[in-house]
Amino acid sequence: MKRIAIFVSGGGTNLQRIADYFASNREVEIVCVVSNNKDAYANQRAKNLGIPLLLVDKETFNSSKFTARMVSLDIDLIVLAGFLWLIPQSLIEAFPGKIINIHPALLPKYGGKGFYGHHVHEAVVAAHEKESGITIHYVNEKYDSGDIIFQAKVAISRNDSPDDVADKIHVLEQMNFPVVIENLLFEK
Ligand code: GAR
C-alpha cells in the first residue's frame, strides 16, 4: 500500500482528479489533505471524498510537530497540488525526494515567488509566448526550483486570453499529474 498526502490552497481540481484516478486502486491511499486556507473549495472536496482534512496555520505548518505528524502517517509521497506556501526545511529533510509540486508553466520560465495560478498565465500571454505547459518537479527549499520530473507543452495562439491558457493547462494537468504520481510511486 502506497500512502500519499496532498497539500492544497485553492480550488482542488488536481486533488479531485488524483482522488478519482486512484479511487479504484487498492494499492494507493490518500491518507490526508493538508490545507492552509480555511476558505479553499479543496477542503470541501476532501470532505466529500471522505479524506481526513488537516487545516494548518503558518506557525503550525512550520513547526517540528507538523513534520512529526507527517512522519507518523508513514507517507510515501507528499503531493503539492496548488499549494502556495514554501515547504519548511525540516519537512524536506524528513521526506528526501518524496515531495513533488505541479507548476502551471514550463519552468524555469515563469517560476518563483508570486508566480502562481492566474498570475502565470497573464505573464505568459503578456510575453506573447507561443507555448506554455506544466512542470512536475521535486520540491526543495526555494520556490519552483527543484529537479524536474516531467514537462508537457501546449501551443498558445495569438488570440488566447489568460483564461484560455488556463483551460489548456488544466487539461494537461488532469491528463498527466496522476499518471506521473503513479509512476513515481511504483517506479515505472
Ligand atoms: C494549478 O494550476 C497548479 O498548477 C497551480 O495552481 C493551480 C491549482 O489548481 N500551482 C501553482 O501555481 C504553484 N505555484 P487546483 O487547486 O484546482 O488544483
Average of the residue pLDDT scores: 97
The percentage of residues in β strands lies in: 15-25%
Give the biggest sheet. 7 strands, mixed
Radius of gyration: 16 Å
What is the CATH fold-level name? Rossmann fold
What's the level 1 CATH class? Alpha Beta
How many domains would you count in the coordinates? 1
Quickly give the structural class: alpha/beta
What is the end-to-end distance?
Answer: 16 Å
Number of strands: 7
Helix content: 25-40%
- In spatial order, strands of the major sheet run 3-2-1-4-5-6-7
Helix and strand pattern: EHEHEHHEHEHEEH
| The CATH homologous superfamily | Formyl transferase, N-terminal domain
Q: How large is the count of helical segments? A: 7
Could you characterize the architecture of this molecule?
The structure is a single chain. The protein has 188 residues and is an alpha/beta fold. The chain has a single domain (2-185), classed as Rossmann fold (3-Layer(aba) Sandwich). 39% of the residues lie in helices and 23% in strands. The chain is built from 7 helices and 7 strands; from the N terminus they run βαβαβααβαβαββα. A 7-stranded mixed sheet has the order 3-2-1-4-5-6-7, with helices on one face. β4 (77-80), α5 and β5 (99-103) form a beta-alpha-beta unit. α1 runs parallel beside α7 (162-186). It starts with a strand and ends with a helix. The mean pLDDT is 97. The structure holds glycinamide ribonucleotide. Glycinamide ribonucleotide (GAR) is lined by residues 8, 10-14, 42, 81-82, 102-104, 116-117, 169, 173.
